[in-house]
């Protein structure tokens, strides 16, 4: 009896302490939602005017149009459905392709940006002025975000908030490193910012040169994967005009063949691309 009373007393004291203790800070969210990842992909592709909802609607619209067209031509729901799925993924695939192409192009421009910032800091400009002048003298593809930073800073005078908007507009891991270096220099101070930027510029040039050599050597693997995946579906597209072949695919066995072939193509393509393409640098300083 005494042990039970002691246990109840301990539980009561624990509940009282928990009710008076300060709440634990919320854990930072590290994983992005699908909408946030899509918005970041569009920003990295340089098409910020397109929203994730608009991209989704374009995928659905493309799938609907292609599916109806193949249904009219082939009179086969399985064949039309297969090509509708492929067409529905096409807009997102084009955005990803443009994203990778733009990141490759910008990889050669970031050293020039860091050189401009280092020269501006060495000339005695303030950090906001150094960033704003990149919108005038920097590489042409990167001028617009830095120009908007200058306009935001002149309108608000809030350096930290303007830096956050600049990071969101650039959506690049190299830009994150540059922005956080400038933020730390602004908050903590120090005279080594110019040296840091010049060191970062040299590192970025070496990294871009190394990645370009490796991508040239491994590019054939990715191209071979694309050709291997596209070939059977091109054959199916030609067979869709033959009534005898269409009748075979309209059966249950034909549906199983289409579903199994699609699954094998997806798995094989993902595997070959993962083995043949260099991993992209992730944004760890969001």
UniProtKB/TrEMBL annotation:
Keyword Endoplasmic reticulum in annotation: no
The Type II secretion system protein GspF domain sits at 114-239
Does Mitochondrion count among this protein's keywords? Answer: no
Q: Which domain of life is it from?
A: Bacteria
Q: How does it sit in the membrane?
A: Multi-pass membrane protein
Main localization (coarse): membrane
**Location of the protein in the cell:** Cell membrane
Q: Which UniProt keywords apply?
A: Cell membrane, Membrane, Transmembrane, Transmembrane helix
Q: Where are the transmembrane segments?
A: 6-24, 45-71, 77-97, 220-240, 252-273
Signal sequence annotation? none
Which GO cellular component does the record give, naming just one? plasma membrane
The record ties this protein, via Pfam families, to:
T2SSF
PANTHER family (UniProt xref): INTEGRAL MEMBRANE PROTEIN-RELATED (PTHR35007), POSSIBLE CONSERVED ALANINE RICH MEMBRANE PROTEIN (PTHR35007:SF3)
Q: By what name is this protein known?
A: Type II secretion system protein F
Q: Which organism is it from?
A: Vallicoccus soli
């Amino acid at each position: 009896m005494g042990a039970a009373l002691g246990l109840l007393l301990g539980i009561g004291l624990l509940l009282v302490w928990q009710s008076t203790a300060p709440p634990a800070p919320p854990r930072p969210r590290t994983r992005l939602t699908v909408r946030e990842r899509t918005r970041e992909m569009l920003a990295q592709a340089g098409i910020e005017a397109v929203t994730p909802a608009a991209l989704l609607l374009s995928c659905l619209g493309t799938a609907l149009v292609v599916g109806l067209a193949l249904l009219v031509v082939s009179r086969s729901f399985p064949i039309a459905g297969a090509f509708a799925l492929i067409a529905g993924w096409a807009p997102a695939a084009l955005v990803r392709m443009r994203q990778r192409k733009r990141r490759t192009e910008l990889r050669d421009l970031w050293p020039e940006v860091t050189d401009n910032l280092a020269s501006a800091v060495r000339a005695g400009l303030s950090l906001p002025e150094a960033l704003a002048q990149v919108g005038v003298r920097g590489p042409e593809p990167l001028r617009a975000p830095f120009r908007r930073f200058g306009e935001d800073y002149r309108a608000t005078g809030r350096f930290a908030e303007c830096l956050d908007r600049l990071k969101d507009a650039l959506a690049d891991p190299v830009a994150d490193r540059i922005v956080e270096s400038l933020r730390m220099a602004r908050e903590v101070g120090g005279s080594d910012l110019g040296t840091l930027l010049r060191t970062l510029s040299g590192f970025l040039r070496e990294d871009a040169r190394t990645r370009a050599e490796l991508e040239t050597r491994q590019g054939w693997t990715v191209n071979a994967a694309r050709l291997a995946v596209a070939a059977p579906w091109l054959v199916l597209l030609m067979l869709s005009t033959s009534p005898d072949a269409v009748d075979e695919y309209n059966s249950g066995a034909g549906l199983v063949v289409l579903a199994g072939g699609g699954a094998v193509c997806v798995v094989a393509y993902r595997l070959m691309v993962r083995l043949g393409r260099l991993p992209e640098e992730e944004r760890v300083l969001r």
